[in-house]
Design a protein that fits this description.
The complex is a heterotrimer of chains A (275), B (266) and C (335).
Chain A lengths: L1 H4 L1 H5 L1 H24 L6 H8 L1 H34 L2 H16 L2 H11 L5 H8 L13 H26 L2 H9 L4 H29 L3 H6 L7 H10 L4 H26 L7
Chain B lengths: L9 H29 L15 H8 L1 H34 L5 H13 L2 H15 L5 H26 L2 H9 L4 H12 L1 H16 L3 H6 L7 H11 L4 H28 L1
Chain C lengths: L1 H17 L5 E4 L3 H19 L3 E4 L4 H10 L6 E5 H9 L26 E13 L10 H4 L9 E4 L6 H8 L12 H9 L5 E4 L2 H9 L5 E5 H9 L4 E16 L7 H11 L2 H11 L14 H5 L10 E2 L2 H20 L1
Parallel strand pairs in C: 1-2, 1-3, 5-6, 5-7, 8-9
Antiparallel strand pairs in C: 3-8, 4-7, 4-8
The chains are: A mainly alpha (275), B mainly alpha (266), C alpha/beta (335).
Chain lengths: 275, 266, 335
């Protein structure tokens, strides 16, 4: 085969061997356990989909990931847009803020949200004293808490790639549309939105995939009924020692993720690297 | 029009408003954590009844925090070395190689980055329990290198792609061996790529928490594992003090990176 | 060059590993309780024996079982709930206690078997925040009364003796008719306040919830309330219908430092160490001589001083039904 003839290919061998031994083999072994433990068969998968609790966790995972993606996209789009055309000095400030939040330790940020979102936290206190609400809103240990915490983490991952796409659009096209008599709304829906769509979809896909497998934020900001797949997998293997079921749940998460990844590579290659 | 800042009209203020709010949203936890670390309330009451340095004193008095930070640092260095070396050869093969299946290989190299971390963590945990690597340095280094490797490949292949292969060929024509050409010509030319590969590899390990939770043992805890543990059992404001120091570290690193970029662009 | 790098990393890794093999690892539930255990037991033990004690936690039964199953045991002495210990002993997961090293004669016999010795003894009490609530709750039924006591209430998150009994008591079941537990009735009662419950997963979290007023009322380990009061928090405990249970110390099967672990148990259960721990934590000592070594005022704040209406949680019952209750518990919680 041509593969082994190329001498440069040999240079990839150490990395390939490393990944094979410590990545592919362990993952396959885990998946194998899902059909081997406690005995051969698909009973773990049957249990996973038939049990109300587990099915809820899976539904919840996709719901949260979808919600987070949608909100991040809606909030991130205007920022990416403005960033692409803003005067350089101003844009640099915005960039520094985005990078600072992105680079700050994940647990530190989540801890801050834990305190901020409490019933007696500063957000509730501010809303109460402004008279907007009359009793504290439940913002933590529920879906709201998870959503706020995750949108916070995901926003940069939408803004940065989308900003790159916007920058690449030639402003002349929009001028042309204005010359042809298009109003602002028309120019937006007919020209800017379609042209930025690839970046938006690529970013959204990435955020969706990342959200699906998220562990720390849902575990700390969610309640007992907001459990997501990643936390469930960890609990199944670490606390309940149910490796078969844990492996099955891992396989579900893995296959969805890989499917979306393949889709992204196929249709949006080039964007996969921005992260 | 829509892509010209000065011709946006009223829309400009709408966009500026949204961006301003988002910026505040992004800054809020970062600033808040620093304020909280000086608050005197042990129970995260805010605004606090008074201000204190107590949590910083406790942080520095407790050797476990320092040990965890040092462990993270040492681990990060080991991971960086391994990841950059593996990443360089892998990237070289990807960019210079002319073999079938390169696209596939590249996608394969990227998978640890895309794969849900918890799956990697659980899979390695299972394997390491069997082969006796769980809770060891070697196991930790291996696990984090898996996660850091894709970042190294991205950074190094990007700069290899931009580097003109002809220069390397010229060196070989002039009598250098292939390895010599790589060592003396290629490596120095892509040093920026290597540097950012190193930086990203280090950060991938330094900030990583999920795999670390599974790999850690009582004697081997990284800083994120320590914070995670404290979040679950102590909830002491010392966490805020430690977090604030991490925020400051981030700021310092960002400033260094920015000025480095300026120097290099000059 | 590369080989050198790799070799160097492996060497660093190897050397760091070897340095820490002989230390004893003690695992407990974190927070103020573990701080007290560290100060009263571990430091005394290290001083006497020269063996360093590493603290880990929180106790996680799954992790513990995984360690024993894989033969890779990193915890040497673990503080666990007694019902778990009874079940684990039956399953052969625990080392037998060496009573040549540990003096059994002075230990409260309720908390000693072949595989476990008492750690401390505590009560679940009704805790409340005096800044938020004007009147003191007087029974578990009050905790379920969201009209008279508005706000969130907090309960122990994990499946363990306590919450189910509390729900039944609140629903009017007599204390001597609790067992066998009527699970349907307990969950039905819990359903009535489910949306008002915030779960605490560990002692520190319970303290934070109560002290900040996040959840001004709920079920607490008595020592945690004591600790908030020590720190100046305006909270109090109602001892009505307090439910007692015990933590015990066990040595997992396959511990690499078995002998040192037994010596640690001897120190931890001694009269002085138990008295010092009780003083710092507000939990009761399991060594019968300890009370002579403590202030009368402190003795009065311990569960033993509140035997009026006190209910002992049935550890034998729980040891037998742990798994089936746990399954139902987590299913119900996630609903």
């Amino acid at each position: 085969m041509a593969l082994s003839l190329d001498r440069n290919f040999r240079l990839a061998l150490p990395a390939l061997a490393f990944l094979l031994l410590f990545f592919i083999v362990p993952v396959l072994a885990l998946l194998l356990r899902s059909v081997m433990e406690p005995e051969w068969g698909f009973q773990n998968y049957a249990e996973l989909f038939a049990t109300n609790t587990y099915a809820r966790v899976m539904f919840n995972t996709f719901m949260v990931a979808g919600l987070v993606t949608l909100i991040s996209l809606l909030l991130g789009y205007p920022v990416a847009w403005l960033l692409a055309i803003m005067p350089r000095g101003l844009a640099n400030i915005v960039f520094s803020i985005i990078l600072l939040s992105m680079w700050t330790n994940l647990l530190a940020r989540t801890y801050a949200w834990m305190v901020l979102l409490q019933r007696t936290g500063i957000i509730n206190k501010a809303l109460l004293s402004l008279g907007i609400i009359s009793s504290p809103l439940p913002l933590i240990n529920n879906l709201i808490g998870v959503t706020i915490g995750m949108v916070y983490i995901m926003l940069p991952f939408i803004i940065l790639p989308l900003h790159a796409t916007m920058r690449a659009i030639d402003p002349v096209i929009l001028q042309a549309s204005a010359l042809c008599g298009a109003g602002k709304w028309q120019a937006f829906t007919r020209v800017l939105l379609p042209l930025s769509m690839t970046g938006a979809i690529a970013g959204a896909l990435m955020v969706f995939v990342m959200s699906l497998g998220y562990f720390v934020t849902p575990a700390l900001l969610g309640g007992t009924s907001n459990m997501m797949l990643a936390e469930m997998i960890a609990q199944l293997v670490q606390s309940l020692l149910n490796w078969g079921l844990g492996g099955a749940a891992a396989f579900v998460l893995l296959s969805v993720t890989m499917l979306l990844y393949a889709f992204q590579v196929r249709f949006f290659s080039g964007y996969a690297d921005i992260r | 029009m829509l892509l010209n800042y000065n011709q946006l009209g009223r829309l400009k203020y709408v966009l500026l408003g949204i961006t301003g709010v988002i910026c505040l949203f992004l800054l809020l936890p970062v600033i808040f954590i620093i304020l909280l670390s000086f608050g005197s309330s042990q129970w995260m009451i805010f605004p606090p009844p008074g201000w204190t340095l107590r949590w910083y004193v406790e942080l520095f008095a407790d050797p476990r925090w320092f040990e965890a930070a040092f462990t993270s640092f040492k681990l990060g260095l080991m991971v960086t070395v391994l990841s950059v070396i593996l990443g360089f050869f892998a990237s070289y093969a990807l960019i210079r190689g002319r073999f079938a299946g390169r696209g596939f290989l590249r996608a394969l190299f990227m998978t640890p980055m895309v794969m849900p971390v918890v799956v990697v963590a659980v899979a390695l945990y299972a394997m390491f329990l069997r082969v006796g690597l769980s809770g060891t340095w070697l196991g930790f280094v291996i696990a984090h290198t898996i996660l850091a490797f894709p970042f190294a490949v991205i950074a190094i292949s990007n700069s290899l792609e931009r580097f003109d292969k002809a220069i390397e060929d010229a060196a070989i024509l002039c009598g250098a061996s292939h390895l010599e050409a790589i060592w003396r010509i290629t490596l120095p030319s892509i040093r920026l790529g290597l540097l950012s590969a190193a930086l990203f590899s280090f950060l991938a390990s330094w900030d990583e928490v999920v795999v670390a939770i599974f790999m850690a043992s009582p004697t081997l805890q990284t800083l994120p594992v320590r914070i995670w543990g404290a979040l679950r059992q102590d909830l002491t404001p010392v966490i805020a003090a430690a977090s604030s120091l991490l925020v400051i570290l981030t700021l310092v690193l960002m400033t260094i990176a920015a000025s480095l970029q300026k120097v290099l662009n000059r | 060059m590369i080989k050198k790098f790799v070799l160097a990393s492996v060497l660093i890794a190897g050397s760091t590993l070897a340095a820490t093999a002989a230390d004893l690892v003690f695992t407990s539930w974190g927070g103020t309780t573990q701080d007290a255990q560290k100060a009263a037991w571990a430091e005394a033990f290290t001083k006497a024996s020269g063996i360093k004690v590493l603290q880990d936690g929180p106790t996680d039964y799954g992790k513990l079982k995984a360690q024993i199953d894989s033969g890779n045991v990193s915890w040497d002495v673990v503080d666990v709930e007694m019902d778990f210990a009874i079940a684990a002993a039956k399953a052969g997961l625990l080392e037998p206690i060496d009573f040549k090293t540990v003096d059994k004669s002075k230990l409260d016999p309720r908390f000693v078997t072949d595989n476990l010795v008492g750690s401390f003894y505590y009560s679940f009490v009704i805790g409340f925040n005096k800044d938020v609530l004007k009147t003191a709750p007087k029974s578990w039924a009050d905790v379920f009364d969201t009209k008279a006591f508005p706000g969130k209430r907090t309960f122990y998150k994990w499946s363990a003796p306590g919450v189910l009994e509390i729900a039944l008591l609140a629903d009017g079941v007599a204390a001597d008719k609790l067992y066998p537990l009527d699970l349907d009735r307990a969950f039905k009662k819990l359903d009535t306040i489910k949306k008002d419950i915030v779960w605490w997963g560990g002692g520190a979290e319970s303290q934070q919830l109560l002290a900040s007023g996040e959840a001004p009322i709920g079920q607490f380990w008595n020592g945690r309330i004591f600790a908030i009061q020590q720190g100046g928090g305006n909270v109090d405990a109602s001892w009505a219908q307090n439910l007692t249970a015990a933590d015990v110390l066990v040595v997992p099967k396959g511990s690499k430092n078995k002998d040192a672990a037994m010596k640690f148990l001897a120190t931890a259960t001694s009269a002085d160490a138990q008295a010092a721990f009780a003083k710092a934590s507000g939990y009761a000592p399991i060594n019968v001589d300890s009370k002579n070594k403590m202030d009368a005022a402190v003795v009065k704040s311990l569960p033993d001083a509140h035997t009026d209406g006190q209910i002992n949680l049935n550890m034998q019952y729980w040891a037998e039904h742990r798994d089936e209750i746990a399954k139902r518990w987590y299913d119900w919680q996630a609903k």
